Amino acid sequence: MTEPTLSFGSQREGASRYLTALREHWLLILTIVVVSVAGAAIVSYTAAKKYEAEATMLVNPVGEGDTTFTGLPVIKESGGLTSGVLTAARLIKTPQVAEGVKTRYGFRMSRGALLGSLDVKPLSQSSIVALVATAHSPATAAAIANGFAEELIRQRSVQFQAGAEEQINRLRAQLASLSSSQRATSAGAELQSRLSELDSIAGGGDPTLSIASDAVPPTQQSWPRPKLSIAVALMVALLLGAGAALALEVFNPTINREDELLLGHRLPILARVPRVRNTAASRYLTRRGKLPAHVWEAYRTLRASLTGAGPKGEFPRRILVTSAIPGEAKTMTSVNLAITMATTGAKVILIDADLRRPMIATVFGAAARSNGFGLLLLGNAPPELALLQAPGTPNLQLLLSNPEHAHLVDLLQRDRLEAVLDQLQEHTDVIIIDSPPLTEVADALPLADVVDTILVTVRLGRSRRDKLDELRRALAQRGVSPAGFVVTSRRVAHKPAYGYEYQAVDRRTTSIDELEERSTLEVGPGK
What we know:
There is one protein chain. The protein has 19 helices and twelve strands. It has helices at residues 2-24, 26-46, 83-92, 95-105, 111-116, 138-176, 180-183, 186-201, 226-251, 258-265, 278-285, 293-305, 330-342, 360-364, 372-378, 383-386, 414-425, 465-477, 512-522; strands at 51-59, 118-122, 128-135, 209-213, 269-275, 318-322, 348-352, 388-389, 396-399, 430-434, 453-459, 484-492. An eight-stranded mixed beta sheet has the order 5-12-11-6-10-7-9-8, with helices on both faces. Strands 2-3-1-4 form a four-stranded antiparallel beta sheet. Helix 1 (2-24) packs across helix 9 (226-251) and helix 2 runs antiparallel to helix 9.
């Protein structure tokens, strides 16, 4: 019973993904439709008009047992009901017939153009051959179709008369050479009978071909057909547009929608952070600007969402913020979560565990060469000397790293990290660790073993599916599952009317229990 349920869920997930792809790429689909329909309309209304006229010929092949036309150039039935019709069709489109049509009817087009304008269609299971001529005027189309039909009959009649005349002359010569007694024999009587048959048909046309109906000038053009062309262009454009949208969805490696996270990873979205422009983010990270109020609201929501995310249903005391690849707002989330938690009065330590590319010192304008995290890993200093008070943010202390000591990554071992965090826990309520991207730096994975809660930051339009899957597999191998995602939206959001910017509202010391209570109360309208 489980497998059908999973299969149905996968089908729903796939259908939802494709429908969302069509909605997201509606502008692409609309553009393809508009361009295709407009192109079809322009071509239809500006292309040279063409007309089709049809003449039909009746074919009566001579049967195999009929000796009347023996030796004469007529169409004979050699096998099958339609072989004579096929023979007639081949005789129509020949250079000799085309040249005769051109000469006798005064067409200015070349012989090849005449042949190209005619389409001969033997009608199956019948004795009819259709001659369909195409031209830029109705009269010309009818004239070409009738011209080929008449010219074929004329040429075949000439050949038939010549053949009959030749046989008559030969028979007369044979009879003239016979004596009176020889003419009275059966052989002579046979010659006389054959001569009489040929005399009766001499001077007539080919009895196997006749015109069943003449072509008449058409009243409507055969091409272009604007309505049909536009309808076909519309259908084809919709298919192409939908195909292009689905191709972008299938072959695009980035995550563009939240439902990919919810359905694909079965983890909650703890906060949705509005995207800010790169210039605004850069100014904030270099202490030259502020974040908009609605962005701070997202981090307050994240703080509230962490209530009960600890191992025993309590507020987590050790939080790891990581990502799959760089540029997914990992450091921004770590810093702002630490600030919003510190504003409640809780004591917070923010650790910059990215030994290769530390950023937290720059964000807070702290000492650029500080290496408190490295000192604790080496055991060369107590926490009191390694920690640095965050400038302008009460209750927040920093444990910084220095890129000059990147070689200390080999010290990121579970036992050593556990010892460092145990020391720090005596001086704080909550520890937040800014981790390097775990798929880029595998030696940082032990950080996941020593924390209570892991937050994974995802930036829509940048985060890669394969890298996020790789991150989940790496954590799963260690028996760890993240608490949820912190998602940065794909587009820059407009500032809402409700909200307020960060300020230090309370500087007194607050216990972790009080922090849990405040976070619970913050989950309500407007948050």
